[in-house]
Structures are given as C-alpha cells and as structure tokens.
Amino acid sequence: MDTTQLLKGVLDVAVLAVLDERDSYGYEVVRRLREAGLEDVGDASVYGTLRRLFKAGALTSYVVPSEEGPHRKYYGLNATGRTTLDGSRATWRRFARTMDGLLDHTEKR
Amino acid sequence: MDTTQLLKGVLDVAVLAVLDERDSYGYEVVRRLREAGLEDVGDASVYGTLRRLFKAGALTSYVVPSEEGPHRKYYGLNATGRTTLDGSRATWRRFARTMDGLLDHTEKR
DNA sequence: GCGCGGTACTTCGCAATGCGCAATAGTGTG
DNA sequence: CACACTATTGCGCATTGCGAAGTACCGCGC
Fold first, then answer.
1. Per the domain annotation, does B109 fall within a domain?
2. Per-block average pLDDT, block size 10, for chain B (109 residues)?
3. Chain D: nucleotides under 7 Å from a protein CB?
4. Which of A7, A11, A55, B93 has an alpha carbon within 20 to 30 A of A92's alpha carbon?
5. Chosen from A103, A104, A109 to mutate, greatest number of chain B CBs within 10 A
6. CATH number at residue A24
C-alpha cells in the first residue's frame, strides 16, 4: 500500500518532531523517521522539507565538518519552529480523530 | 490552520467510507463529509475524487433525474471499492498510529 | 415574467509537495 | 582501483486538492 499521499503535509510535523528531540542532519533525519515507522519516506523529500522549513524561518542551520565522511548540515528548531510544531501537532490530532471517527462510524459490523 | 495537505490521500478513503454507508451523489457527499468534521473540504475536490474512483473501477454510477432540482449522479461501492476501502482503512490506521507515536514520543514534558 | 438563491455538475489551470534519478564528493574496505 | 556507504544538491515529474467560472435546473417572492 502506498503511503506517499498520506505523508503530504505530515512530513513537516514529523521532521519538526525529531528535530525537537535533538538537532540533526538530513541523512540522520531520514534514518530516524524510518526507524519511527515511516519506512517509505524518500531522502529527497526530507532534504526538501528541511530546506523548506529553513527558508520558512523555522530552523537554524550550521555545518559540521566530519572526519568520518562528508560534511553534515545540522538543523535545529528555533522559537518559530517550536510554535509551528505545537500548532501542527494539535492540527494533526484534531484531523486524525476526525478521520478515525468517520472510519469507525461507517465500519462494517 | 490549513488542513489542505492533510487531506491528500485521505479524501479517497473518506469518500469511500460515506459511500459504504449508502449510495450518494457529489453534492451530498460534500455535505456529509463536512458534517463529519472535514469542514474545509472543497466541492471540486470531491467531484474530482468521485470521478477518479469511478475511473479506477471502484464505484458504480447511475443518474437519477430529480424533480426537485438538477439531476443527481449517484455513486455506490462495488466489490473493488469495498476491498479498496478495507485496505485503505487499515493503511490509514497503521499510519495514524505511527504518527501519533512519533508525536507523543517527542512531545515536551 | 424576472431576478434570486439553492442545488448539482463540469472544465480549466494552478499550487503544493513527495519522489526518482543523476551528479558530486568524501571515507574506508577488499 | 572498484565498490559501498555516507551526505548533500538540483531537476523535473506525478498526484491531488482547490478556486473560479460556466452551465443548468428548480421554487419563491415581487
């Protein structure tokens, strides 16, 4: 089953959530999301989302040269990002409950 | 808060769910979805979704001339539609629980 | 009869966003 | 050296929800 369309609009919150736990860089965010259960998430989507959120002013960014490989571009939440996260989390919960209600209500007995 | 992106990929299931309860036509589907809590759903989206689902072979369709207004194009689930609904419902639940887990896990204390 | 509001559907084109793919580049392993 | 893994960027595509406009049919009040 394809979850691509379900991810729309949710990837933002998901990325903000893992960054709220601790600063991270693209490649690692992908791994953490997949470990959390979002196994089908594409790497290009995450990188794109990070850039978008940064451009929207929700994230800070700093490059950390690594001696174990290529450099890493770390991202972290700023005040705006935390506010966005709180709002999006609430929106998600309202929405998810609405959908649950709709699907439960009509489910065959 | 904008739920447009959240609707992506979910409108299908929502429409299938209300049609599973009983046959309906576009205009009424919109009303029923809004009453169920999806208040921001656009009418063009629903009409589009109905056409898409019909084209995909999940729906039956029959026109009922109405003496109380314009004709109504009724849609109903066929076997394929019910199978699709069952699958999508399960997919939604798995996905929603994954997201809930991710958001709970990282929520501020 | 005429305008108005509500019902009901279609078509058009746009905007947002997730993704595949290719390119670049550094590191360590066989 | 070829290869795999890490790490990022850019390009272009597909999907899909939506706004706007147009068509059309109905009953109601004036």
1. no
2. 89 96 94 93 95 95 83 94 94 95 79
3. 5-12, 15-21, 24-27
4. A55
5. A103
6. 1.10.10.10
